[in-house]
Amino acid sequence: MDQPVLDRQITVKVSALDGSRWTLEISGEVHVGELKAKLECLTGVPAREEQLLWREEILEDSSTMACFAGASNCVSLTLVRVARHRVVALGGGTIARLSAEFYDSASGLWSALPGMLTPRHGLAAASCGHQVFAIGGEDCLGRVLSSVECFDVTTLVWSEAPGMSTGRYTHAATSITGQLFVVGGQDEVGSTLGCGEAFDIEAGTWSRLPELNTPRHSHALVAVNNRELLVFGGIGDGARALGSGEVLNLEGGSRVWALLPDMRVPRYSLAAVVWEGLVYVLGGKDDDGRAQVIVEAFDYPAGSWFEIAAMSVARHALAAVSTETGIYVLGGRSTDHDALASVEVYSTESCWVTASRMGSARSGLAGAVVC
To answer: Which residues does the UniProt record annotate as the domain Ubiquitin-like (predicted)?
Structure first.
């Protein structure tokens, strides 16, 4: 097809999936990226979250509109808003690190963030809105930390937050609407902890949680239904991998941890996320110290476990987060005990694909998702 004249006037008709429509008169030399900027002013949808389709083909930002108008003076496009998320990786490494980085789904790339105030390894993290909290861990001298710091993605600044009452590492954390929850881990003398704490972000205060039935470290923790905490696996006082799980109903009158059905494979140094109504428990180490590729899904209402597609890389001391579009598995250590920079994503296609590598290999890291 002959290349159209680029400077002619073109009518662009844009339709959204909700039935909204817009018409723009533009010059043929306008690029798709420029058109998205114009649409942002009309629709309120940020240009980075816009996806324009022409005959079901996704348009590249560098293409000119004349390429799609052809010989006519009119082109019809479909506007789709794609979810944008930022995955944050904190600390970890062969030694405690200050560094942090984030993956932007709009660009598909990892970028460096300002370093934390304190180097941390074996830390936990949780997010609330545009804030990420780095909680506890060990510093580069092996000191166990009770300190907490907060990163604001709107200002790109780290600040100190009120510290926990108990220093801990190899613990786990999650969040529910304005509160952080931290459970288990090890203290400064290496004792396994059964205690937990809750942090009210607005009030800036910590309070104690009920003791676990089985003290554990190197476990995983998730929140479901905005009121329940579920903990899985880890290592108990017997120094063996645990397959057990426990649940705490934060609104229940008894306020005690109840037992859950055991996982199929006892593991520690694992990760867990909630995605599309299921709890996914990923990777870890078995009692023989072998890194795992296994992924188990837990149907909490049914109380049943089943396996899904395994990861492509065996890893422990990893981090995992979930977004609207899938599950991201970050770093960790391989079977050969090498720290990993690799990232895998599990999506609705029920398979694992390789994503962009982090800028640094990290094990004992923490991950979070921010708006």
So the answer is: 10-66
List, in order of start, the domains of the chain with CATH numbers. 9-81 (3.10.20.90), 86-370 (2.120.10.80)
Tokens of 245: 């799980």
Q: Which amino acid is at 96?
A: A
Task: Report the length, in residues, of the chain.
Answer: 371
Structure tokens given for 20: 């909204």
- Give the global pTM: 0.81
In terms of DSSP H, where are the helices of 44-166? 66-69
Q: What is the pLDDT of residue 342?
A: 97
Structure tokens at 337: 């005990």
Residue 358 tokens read as 């982090």
Which candidate, 67, 82, 79, places its Cα nearest to that of 28?
67
What is 159-198 written as a DSSP string?
EEEPPPSS--BS-EEEEETTEEEEE--B-TT-PBP--EEE
Q: Provide the pLDDT for residue 46.
A: 79
Give all strands of the β-sheet with 9-16 in edge-to-edge order.
21-27, 9-16, 74-81, 50-54, 57-58
Q: Say whether 217 sits in a helix, a strand or coil.
A: strand
Coil, helix or strand at residue 68: helix
**What residue ranges in 28-143 does DSSP mark as E strands?**
50-54, 57-58, 74-81, 86-90, 100-104, 109-113, 124-128, 131-138
Place of tokens 């019809």: 76
**CA–CA distance, 255 with 24 (Å, rounded to integer):** 59
Q: How far apart are CA 111 and CA 130, in angstroms?
A: 17
94-123 pLDDT, tens per residue? 776 899 999 988 778 999 999 999 999 999
CA angle, corner 193, sides to 203 and 207, nearest 5? 15
Closest CA to 187 of 209, 170, 212, 206: 170
Positions of the chain with pLDDT under 70: 1-7, 71, 83, 96
Phi, psi (rounded to 5 degrees) for 293: -100, -10
Give the whole-angstrom CA distance, residue 122 versus residue 242. Answer: 19
